[in-house]
Amino acid sequence: MKPLFYLGLALSLAACSSPSSDTAATDAGVLAHNDFESLAGWLPDESVLTKDQARSGKYAIMVDPNHEFSLTYNTLLGNLSEHKPRGLLVEAWVYLPDDKATAQLGMQVVDPDKNNEPTFSDGVALAEVVKEYKQWTKVSKEIVLPPNATYNQRVKIFLWRSNAASPVYLDDLTIKVLE
């Protein structure tokens, strides 16, 4: 349980990291922006951070056959906005080395009162949207929250390996609230 606490603490601190010069993290509606430069030293297991590929700075996050999930953005739905948001816009830069990099950028709403059971899932199948390999590609998706989502449920955003045989890298993640 302690590693999950430290991971949550690290992500909370990192979500406050300075935006890259090429991002509009000061735009209205930006909930979080992370270039993953602020996480080194905060994580109990830094193996999910990598210097192998980074779009900006030195670090990115990754999944590979040894890492099923990346770091996860995890917050209460009630923390997103004063009013129940319509949804989220998730934007990120991904790097796929080849056609075996079949990871997904995922989003879930889970219910802590029901043992963190997912009540809603959506995401981006990266192999379906990235058409060129060995280069950084921007992906984005508007995710409309279900009408039955409640403020005490948690929103999670993560990179999932999803049977990828090759590593998949993600950098410069931005999450915006859709009112």
Which properties best describe this structure?
179 residues, mainly beta, Jelly Rolls, four-stranded antiparallel β-sheet, 2 helices, 10 strands, disordered N terminus, signal, CBM-cenC domain-containing protein
Short structural description:
The protein is built from two helices and ten strands, in the order αβββββββαβββ.
Overview of this protein structure:
By secondary structure, the protein is mostly beta strands. It has a single domain, classed as Sandwich (Jelly Rolls), CATH 2.60.120. Helices cover 10% and strands 40% of the residues. The chain has two helices and ten strands; from the N terminus they run αβββββββαβββ. Strands 1, 2, 3, 5, 8 and 10 form a six-stranded antiparallel sheet that branches. It has a four-stranded antiparallel sheet with strand order 4-9-6-7. Strand 6 and strand 7 form a beta hairpin.
Span between N and C termini? Answer: 34 Å
Compute the CA-based radius of gyration.
15 Å
Give average pLDDT, whole number.
Answer: 83
* Helix content percent band: 10-25%
Secondary structure: number of strands: 10
Percent of residues in beta strands: 35-45%
Tertiary shape: globular
Number of helices: 2
Number of domains: 1
Biggest β-sheet description = 6 strands, antiparallel
- Which CATH architecture would you pick? Sandwich
Structural class: mainly beta
The sequence of SSEs as H and E is HEEEEEEEHEEE
Spans of at least 5 consecutive residues with low confidence: 1-25
InterPro entries: Galactose-bd-like_sf (IPR008979)
Organism: Hymenobacter terrestris
Keywords: Signal
Protein name: CBM-cenC domain-containing protein
